[in-house]
Amino acid sequence: MACHQAWPEQLIVRLDERSLLGLAKLQRGRGGFPVFVPYTSPELTRAALEQAAVLTRNLGAHITLFAVQVIPFSMPLDIPSGSVALLEQKLAAVAQQAGTEAEVRVICARDFGLGLKQILMPNSLVVMATKKRWWPTAEVKLAGVLARAGHSVAILGV
Question: What kind of fold does domain 32-157 have according to CATH?
Answer without folding.
Answer: Rossmann fold (3.40.50)
